[in-house]
Amino acid sequence: MAQADGHHPQDPGSTIRAFVEALDVEDLIMRFDVDFDAPMRQADATGMLRLARAHTKDPAAGARGVARRVGAHWCEIVQADVGYELLSALQLIEESQRDAERLMAWHTDGALDPADVFPHYALARWHDGVGRIRYRLGSYTASRRVFGTAVEVAERAGLWWALPDLLSNHTRAQFEERAQAAREKDGGTDVEAFVPPMQETHDRILRQADEHGVDTGSVPDGSTPLRHREFLRGYSNALHNLATALRQAGEVQESLRVTARSQALSEGLDDTYRVSQSLMNQAFCGDRPQERFATLRDIGRGEGERARRGWERGRRIARQNLAKLGGGPAGLAELARLLDELEDDAAGTGRRAGLDVDFYAYTVRAYREAAAALPEAERPGDVLDRRIKMAESVREAIALPVYKRAYAEHVRPAYLRAIGKEVSRGGRRQEHLERIVSLVERSSGRELLDLLASSRPPVLDRPAHPLPTRADTDETGETGETEGIGETEGAEGAGEADGTGKATRGSRLPALRAQAPDPETMREMRELLVERAQQYEDHFLHHPLTSATHDDDIAHQLVQYTLNHEGSCVVRYFRFGTSDAPLNGEEASAPDSLGIMVCRNGLLTLLPPIPYAEVTALARQVSADLLDEDSLAPREETCRRIWSLLVGPFWESADRGGPLTHLTLIPTDDIFAIPLHVATEPDDDRPLAARVPLSHSVSVAAFVTRGRHLLKKQLMEDDDDLAALLSTDRRATGREIVKAGWRAAHVHVAGRVPAALAGRIAGEFGADWDGLEQLVSVKPEFFVYAGHGVYVDEPEASGPLIHLGKTDMLSQFDLALRVSLPRNKLTVLGACLAGQGMGSEGGDVLGFMRSLIISGAGAIGVPLWSVQDSAMVSTVGALLRGSREALEPSSTGVFDVVQVLHDHYRESMETAVSVEARVDRLPLALYL
Asked: Mean pLDDT, to the nearest integer, of 622-631?
């Protein structure tokens, strides 16, 4: 329709096209930090970049096109970070990862024009954005590394105006990494240690300002050059971090002085985010907190406000603190509204605030505090329910391994208190006991169940940075590998103790923890572990796990299992209590306890609690035995103590009602490291595994619901494949597979093939990644590892590593994501202490055990101390032979791994007299 002036209306599409064509994408990205991120107008910039198709791949655009895509993704990563949309940020990182890697290669090789700052700027800023997300996720080591890369890129390219921000972020990540390690090691950290590095960074930035003529003493305005404004914004960031460090160190007045300077710069830059942070620091310093929080809450909403956009998360923090300061029924009601909002957010598909674990937990704590301050008659009855709902919501939202670190601090204490409350009711009705089992299962072993509930992740490529073994000697100091291993008839007994004495140190596999590599090697191992752990986390960050739904009927399923498997008994250990610090007005805390629930013949029995401090002391006693040069194995006294503390209490309940044909023990926390199978009754010298058919499991849910109890009996087939990875020497010989009774056409070995089998088996490969891939490719029903390893116990990383020949080390993360065993029936990991490192503060199973279960392994045998090679050879050989004997005409074709192991252990006791000699003949703990 014609308008009054006779002209047709302008085509909106052409107007948009004209705008897009005129848009300078590179200039927008270079201006993003100060002109869009500072005033909270990120969406304006990212919207324009999307209109300009800056994210679209254009092969003809070359390196500049790649740099534009990297820069455009950086802008959206920052937007997601400010909005705490961390899942969105991770998706953006994954989308742009390859482009960033290409750009980095060109930058490193000098293929980019040094005078053209844009590609270098986009690359540095992208790494800084990734570091921010890693930092938010609590992965401080990963963030420190990627922030460091951002700094290196900026320094090489001369991006002086961007360096203050990058340096400040890098310094904070370095401190948080050390602080996290200190908290994990001894529960504390030196808050004053943060001030010197932040002061040093601050002073370095001032020197750079002088060098480049940046006026740090005046308030910037619109006439300040763009690069100077970006420099000053980074300087404001450094000032804020320094102010935070000073406040945490107790230097309140100096903190306020530094914050005032940061706030002045931020006001001049119209930097809403940094102004908000300054207001929070002033409030936390006690400087008119109600006024500061009210201002933060109302930024962008008050009359006469400049066109400034508020920071939503900051508003919520302000509301939380104003409610805490106000207290009373009104404060409690506001906190309840805030929790309702968080619970709604956690249930949404975006899961925005649900990922904000710390804020959610602090709000719950504030609700507890407000409730505890009220007269008892006015307190709400939903405080514990709120804690449990937070725990459930967090678990739903944090289906990412890196987030599980928050679980022990924020979530598990709520469950331990809830379990303790349920136990304290004292009821013995089966319905009441089933509720306890359900709570226990809901609170522990959840990450593994999430992994099992998810589709099998694709196997990752081999690591880019292997760690070859440098020495040409084995761990004994003897050169070369033993020739003719497995040739002699008497080889199985070589080096074994007699029935009363101890084996010599030389006959034992070296303990992972007992070895002490030189500092340089240990540093390399630490870096390897950090890198592999980051790859593991990255994989699940980009491929979020399916959150396994808790089955409220799990206890009933356990009851049904024991009813339908005559002679079976399941013992579930669990931790409970109220040891988290009580708030004023709350019930007094009590030390944690160990609970033991026994299920036999469909009947649940809850035993009297055991002080958990006694369990901790026993775990230390076991550890001392394993590190003692004179024993390197559990001593008789320790075995007796294991029985009296952890087995004796349930023995009468387990042994009643007919013969005990299968006992399953499910550990928790420290008990994972305690060799329950060697528990020995005071008046009986037979260890537990030689008395009854015994297995372990990681949770009731894994054992019953996920069907791992079905691994006890399995149908054997004539074409079952046996794969062995042999990183062998004189003390780890690999003779386990020599007399296994296996058809040579179905035996595959990576590593030195025992002479008795050389040239006769189906596959002979090197003990390297190629060989391991060949073994995995046959989908072996039986998998055996024989070799050594080391336990890395460093501030930034800890965990076991085992040798992959002399080419690399295997971590638990490699077994989880680089080894797939989908048809496996039995796996034996024959590296000493390979079963250690399984327990966690959250009750989850960790270490190689978790990784093998994730990989698809069937029944799993692991040693828990420096076992004798002869005992390992004898035991694993018995299991392998037993599986083949099941195929004999007189047999049923069914292999009962629990019964075969028990029979072997029982028979091996006949020639051993002392308890310690008998323990030496029980090298494996069996997990279903």
From this structure: 84
Q: What residues contact residue 563 under an 8 Å CB cut-off, 6+ apart?
A: 601, 602
Give the whole-angstrom CA distance, residue 665 versus residue 671.
Answer: 10
Which tops the pLDDT comparison, 44 or 141?
44
Q: Which tokens hold the place of 501? A: 């004495």
Rounded to whole angstroms, the Cα distance separating 823 from 836 reads 25
Residue 8 tokens read as 């047709």
pLDDT at position 452: 65
pTM: 0.82
Question: What does the alpha-carbon distance between residue 311 and residue 813 come to, in Å, rounded to a whole number?
Answer: 38
Which residues does 123 contact at the CB level (< 8 Å), separation at least 6? 67, 70, 100, 103, 104, 107, 153
What burial letters (b/e) apply to 873-901, b meaning 16+ CB within 10 Å?
Answer: bbbbbbbbbbbbebbeeeeeeebbbbebb
Contact (Cβ atoms closer than 8 angstroms) between residue 614 and residue 645 = yes
Residue 96 and residue 136 in contact, taking contact as beta carbons nearer than 8 Å: no
* Short-list 634, 640, 611, CA closest to 622: 634
Under 8 Å CB-to-CB from 608, ≥6 apart: which residues?
A: 649
The lowest-confidence range among 50-59, 197-206, 602-611, 612-621 is 50-59
- 82-119 pLDDT, tens digit each: 988 877 888 899 899 999 999 999 999 999 998 999 99
Residue 824 near residue 854 (C-beta atoms within 8 A): no
| 484 has a pLDDT exceeding 70 | no
Burial readout 657-670 (b: 16 or more C-beta within 10 A, e: otherwise): eeebebbbbbbbbb
> Which pair of tokens denotes residue 522?
């240990």
**Inter-residue contact 761 to 748 (CB < 8 Å):** yes
Instruction: Provide the pLDDT for residue 305.
Output: 47
* Of 595 and 466, more confident: 595
Is the pLDDT at 763 greater than 80, yes or no?
yes
Q: Are 725 and 782 in contact (CB under 8 A)?
A: no
Beta strand segments in 705-745, E? 713-715, 722-726
| Highest mean pLDDT, choosing among 173-182, 276-285, 537-546, 588-597 | 276-285
* Rounded Cα–Cα distance for residues 147 and 132 (Å): 8
Contact 689, 902 (CB under 8 A): yes
Q: 309 exposed, middle or buried (CB, 10 Å; 0-12, 13-18, 19+)?
A: middle
- The β-bridge partners of 747 are 722
For the sheet with 789-793, list strands across it. 789-793, 798-804, 808-811
Q: What is the mean pLDDT of the chain?
A: 83
SS3 category, 507 = helix
With tokens 């299920």, the residue in question is 599
User: CA 798 to CA 185: how far, in whole Å?
Assistant: 11
User: DSSP string of 133-197?
Assistant: HHHHTT-HHHHHHHHHHHHHHHHHHT-TTTHHHHHHHHHHHHHHHHHHHHHHHHS---GGGGHHH
pLDDT in the model for residue 907 = 94
Determine the Cα–Cα distance for residues 537 and 402; give it in Å rounded to an integer.
6
H-helix or E-strand spanning residue 288: none
Pairing of strands 859-862, 610-611: unpaired
- Where does the pLDDT of residue 463 fall: very low under 50, low under 70, confident under 90, or very high at 90 and above? confident
Length of the chain: 928
